Amino acid sequence: MSVDIRLLEYFRESVFLSALFFMLILQIRIQLYWFLTINPYTRPWVYVISIVDWIFDVSAGFAPVFLGLDISSSILTGLLGKFLDNLNHLVFTMPFLPSEGEPGKLMINGKLRDVILFRYLPSLWYDHPIPEDLREYWYTERPDILKFMQKNYNKLDIEFLPTRVLKEMYEQKHRMKLDTMPTVEASVNHINHMSTNIIAESSNYISDISQFVNQKQFMFLHFIENSTDKWIF
Description:
- The structure is a single chain.
- 65% of the residues lie in helices and 8% in strands.
- It is mainly alpha-helical.
- Among the domains are: 6-92, no CATH class; 94-121, no CATH class.
- The strands form 2 sheets. The chain has a two-stranded antiparallel sheet.
């Protein structure tokens, strides 16, 4: 999908390295307990104490004492190690939701490995518009992706073109509509003019026919009258 998640990756790496450094300082502080000849309240050890001792103060009383030894440091180290391990294996699935992943298998470096597959369109794009920068990237740099999306998901009510392109298409369509309006009006006026001429000519034609019929009828009646007069004895 070409979603840029570098910022999230940088943040994850920063948190991972910071927590790893804190774990190293914590281990140094724990080892100082075993070196009785080292005074931890002298430089540079006092800096180590000031960095990590607050976590021991917070966790004091929560961990039990085993054989006279406080095991809170071991518990804290284990929890921090678990957190670092999870953070190191954290994968961002944007724009997909983690729940959209399907278990599957793929050949990676010649070995069949268990993977999580993400297919089809993300569910977020059904409810929310596709990010503008992503649509712009498809349109300007990856038209093959844009063509694939439009071909396979054209029946869905999803816009794949950038907003600026949609705006230009709308404005062009509006201009074409305005340009065709005078032509349509002229055609309508021409049709109205033709209809008026046809009606006028039809009226004249009907009037001429009426006059012709009346004239012939008068001549026929006149002929009948003359013939009748001759038949009377």
